[in-house]
Fold this sequence. Notes:
This protein has one helix at residues 6-24; strands at residues 38-44, 47-48, 53-58, 70-72, 78-80, 93-100, 102-107, 110-116, 131-134, 139-140, 144-146. The chain has one domain: Carboxypeptidase-like, regulatory domain (Immunoglobulin-like, Sandwich), CATH 2.60.40.
Amino acid sequence: MIRTPRLIVGCLGVVGLAVVLFASGCGKKDGKRPVYPVVGKVLIDGQPGADARLIFYPTDAADTLAPKPTAVVDEQGNLVVTTYVTGDGAPVGEYKVALEWPKMTNQFGRIQPGPDRLGGKYKDHTSSKWTVRIAEGNNTLPDFDVKTK
């Protein structure tokens, strides 16, 4: 039977642990991707699409950990994209955009989104007619111009 001194085994264990800890510390510690400002506008039948909601789905299906930025349209039809904190933007990449326009309802004294006034026509990103590319720096998207008539 071969005996390995405990000191050598202990040192190898410490070295192995140090390698694992060092490797896990490489890269961004919070796991967040860099984001860049993204603004745009939603018009529905030529009018601001207030309260419309957008979800940006990455087109790279292999990247299952990619975030899905979102935006809510204000009273003037403007949108600002959010990924991690309100208005921070979106990571670089190409996205298919899904859009819904909920009718806001008052339920038990709280304003909440109700049914989609567009009937779900633009809610499925796989059939979306909108593809956008986010680049490093400031991004202004082309208008999302929705016709219901």
